[in-house]
Amino acid sequence: EGLHSLMVAAGKLFFGTATDTNLFNDTAYQSIATNANEFGLHVPENSQKWQPTEPVEGQFDFVNPDTVASRARAQGQMFRCHTLTWHSQLPNFVQTTQWTRETLTLAIQTHITNTVTHFKGQCYSWDVVNEALNDNGTMRNDVFFRTLGTDYLAISFLAARAADPGAKLYYNDFNLETLQAKADGAVRIIQLLQQQQQSTSGAVVTPVVDGVGFQAHFNVGQTPNKTSLMATMSRFVAMGLEVSFSELDIAHTRLPATEAALRQQAEDYVTVVDACLSTPRCVGITVWEFTDKYSWIPSTFPGEGDACLFSANMTRKPAYSSVSSFL
Ligand code: XIL
User: Fold this and answer.
1) Is 286 exposed, middle or buried, given 0-12, 13-18 or 19+ CB atoms closer than 10 A?
2) Which CATH number does 3-326 carry?
3) To bridge 20 with a disulfide, which of 45, 151, 159, 188 should be the other Cys (CB 3.0-4.6 Å)?
4) Residues in Cβ contact with 47 at an 8 Å cutoff, skipping those fewer than 6 apart
5) Are the C-beta atoms of 322 and 269 separated by less than 8 Å?
6) Is the ipTM here above 0.95?
């Protein structure tokens, strides 16, 4: 018994976690991470991003994400791939080159073709474009948008589709669950991609985009309710897509957390799981690390933390027990 087994019994594909090779020598951590009944899918937390995989233009290094992938496979766990075109964790050359439309298009295509081809057949899904939107729903003014406008979206998805026709291709972002204007922006992105798909494929309808990932980085007591989460997901399901919660964690904004706050966190986790179970096209949930020991939250949002299902000493928190008994 474990979260993944229970999730599969409930008709979903996976309950997964982010992890990476820097944590491979922590045995207490590994005994949980490698339990395929607990976490049935792994996604590299950092090592598959553009900076680590192509630190110098044209020079690729897949040793770390390969290690995550092969170990997941050996344990019978699924593998999710993250991420290709993203404004953050970019190599220097992407940020400093004076790009033209032509040269940046080629750089994106080269990165995606090499990376997606390398992992061909191994990824349940790829987060092809990550965090393209501002919170107000306009396009983020990053190097991709400044050089190519919205064309970089289709350039990225078409390159990924050509390199691995079997991987589900996702648009992934945060705050879509809480900000209507940002969800509106994501709907526009999907519309653009679906128009592109018709004009490039003619009569043959090969989807360019298969899914939307909701990062679900929430705060305790401020997690959207089930109705609201389901309503947001349904906008994308209505466009023919599958959905998932792709980086779930629920951070305390006051530390140390009180007993009451731990109970609220448990309730909030159950709300998210409940919304996925009640949405037939929600395929699964991935937490962004399962232990407070390794959560990215405290270093990124000072004063916040303890966002995970397991404590820093690897014991199950009330959130774990509540999710487990809910499932
Ligand atoms: C984070 C990692 O967890 C950190 O270790 C790293 O320092 C920064 O990136 N959205 C994403 C993830 O799509 O890739 C980010 O991961 C968290 C926010």
Assistant:
1) buried
2) 3.20.20.80
3) 45
4) 20, 21, 53, 64, 65, 68
5) yes
6) yes
3-state SS, residue 290? coil
212 Cα: distance to centroid of ligand 1 (angstroms) = 17
CA nearest 318: which of 251, 255, 246, 270?
Answer: 270
Task: Indicate the domain borders of the chain.
Answer: 3-326
Secondary structure class of 298 (helix, strand, coil): helix
Among 19, 20, 22, 46, which is best to mutate for testing ligand 1, by the most ligand atoms less than 8 A from CB?
46
Q: What is the pLDDT of residues 198-222, one digit of tens each?
A: 666 555 557 799 999 999 999 999 9
Residue owning tokens 């897509």 = 241
Model confidence, pTM: 0.97
Count of all residues that appear for the chain in the document:
327
Distance between CA 310 and CA 312 in Å, rounded?
7
